[in-house]
Amino acid sequence: MNITIIAVGKLKEKYLKQGIEEYLKRLGPYAKVQIKEVADEKAPENMSEAEIQNVKQKEGERILSQVNQDTYVITLEIDGKMLTSEKFAAKLDELATYGKSKIAFVIGGSVGISDDVEKRSDLALSFSKLTFPHQMMRMILLEQVYRAFRIMRGEPYHK
């Protein structure tokens, strides 16, 4: 399975980089995983709705430029579908079984994702109704993907 995480913005926090490197290493035997960063737009606190849409549009164009036609796209969205770790593992297993071996997870920027990215999404997934920093979501996502592979293989870890 080829998994790409497309994330808006540069990761700066050392502790997150270390955690992400650890999960990438753990995922090595299960899948080819890469992270593609796309530039974020400046998003000051008090933006108008038009400015927010403009930021989403520009970031969305950068995201979509990284998505191949034959890729199954999973966007991370607060209003997306919530799955248990077991159901998430079953979904990844189902995708692999039915020939969807190229998967891209999209983590938007601080103002969310554009309508065009939402339209391209094959599955909108939510990890919680809580809001997490998008940089931290990279590590949370990688941990859940790793957990899913362990569950699929019947290996200990997910308890």
From TrEMBL:
<keyword id="KW-0963">Cytoplasm</keyword>
<comment type="subunit">
    <text>Homodimer.</text>
</comment>
<feature type="binding site">
    <location>
        <position position="76"/>
    </location>
    <ligand>
        <name>S-adenosyl-L-methionine</name>
    </ligand>
</feature>
<dbReference type="Pfam" id="PF02590">
    <property type="entry name" value="SPOUT_MTase"/>
</dbReference>
<keyword id="KW-0489">Methyltransferase</keyword>
<keyword id="KW-0949">S-adenosyl-L-methionine</keyword>
<comment type="similarity">
    <text>Belongs to the RNA methyltransferase RlmH family.</text>
</comment>
<feature type="binding site">
    <location>
        <begin position="127"/>
        <end position="132"/>
    </location>
    <ligand>
        <name>S-adenosyl-L-methionine</name>
    </ligand>
</feature>
<comment type="function">
    <text>Specifically methylates the pseudouridine at position 1915 (m3Psi1915) in 23S rRNA.</text>
</comment>
<dbReference type="GO" id="GO:0070038">
    <property type="term" value="F:rRNA (pseudouridine-N3-)-methyltransferase activity"/>
</dbReference>
<feature type="binding site">
    <location>
        <position position="108"/>
    </location>
    <ligand>
        <name>S-adenosyl-L-methionine</name>
    </ligand>
</feature>
<dbReference type="InterPro" id="IPR003742">
    <property type="entry name" value="RlmH-like"/>
</dbReference>
<dbReference type="GO" id="GO:0005737">
    <property type="term" value="C:cytoplasm"/>
</dbReference>
<keyword id="KW-0808">Transferase</keyword>
<dbReference type="InterPro" id="IPR029028">
    <property type="entry name" value="Alpha/beta_knot_MTases"/>
</dbReference>
<dbReference type="InterPro" id="IPR029026">
    <property type="entry name" value="tRNA_m1G_MTases_N"/>
</dbReference>
<protein>
    <recommendedName>
        <fullName>Ribosomal RNA large subunit methyltransferase H</fullName>
        <ecNumber>2.1.1.177</ecNumber>
    </recommendedName>
</protein>
<keyword id="KW-0698">rRNA processing</keyword>
